[in-house]
Amino acid sequence: MSVITELPPFCSDVEAGLVSVVIPTYRRPQEVLRAVETALAQTYRALEVIVVSDGVHAETRAILEGMDSRLRYYELAQNSGPAEARNVAVRLSCGEWIAFLDDDDEMMPTKIEHQMRLADRAQPKRMIACRVVYRHGVRDDIHPERPIGADEDVADYILLRPGCCRGLECFRCNRC
Q1: Is the pLDDT of residue 37 over 60?
Q2: What are phi and psi of 75, to 5 degrees?
Q3: Boundaries of each Glycosyltransferase 2-like domain copy (predicted)?
Q4: N or C: at which end does the chain have fewer Cβ atoms within 10 angstroms?
């Protein structure tokens, strides 16, 4: 666990099929702990979890320290925003695939396993996405409401579908 001053050299001896779960965080130790626990509980075992704190935060460091050998924790020297923390985490990753997870979200236990069944090493720029469950007390909403169509444009499906929007998370929406 260390404050980042420079990025480490390229990863060596990378396990085939390794997935890097990238989690940016900012002063939310209990939330990031839950996110990390769900990432480490994946049925797909070839993974590493990289948490980058957007600024120095002793409480977050303490709660994650020594948790699992697959967890790496870094802190930015100063607050730079979630995009920078996420980008640094990606640069620190060693995996062939990147899985993004926000610090206040959780992964279903088989999420990465299901996605890796679709992964194709011959097409490394492929994007594998899944639907999201929003929990509202006793009600669950699944978004998008349906799987993507075979010939449907990914950008239209993710960004323009009315059922996919939540506040400012989309660029255009008919019923946000």
Answers
A1: yes
A2: -125, 135
A3: 20-146
A4: C
